[in-house]
Amino acid sequence: MSFGNWQASMLWRKRVTMVASEYPDIELSHMYVDNAAMQLIRDPKQFDTIVTNNIFGDILSDEASMLTGSIGMLPSASLGESGPGLFEPIHGSAPDIAGQNKANPLATVLSAAMLLRYGLGEENAAKRIENAVMETLDKGFRTGDIFSSGKVYVLLVYSIMFLPSSK
Question: Domain Isopropylmalate dehydrogenase-like spans what residues (predicted)?
Answer without folding.
Answer: 1-157
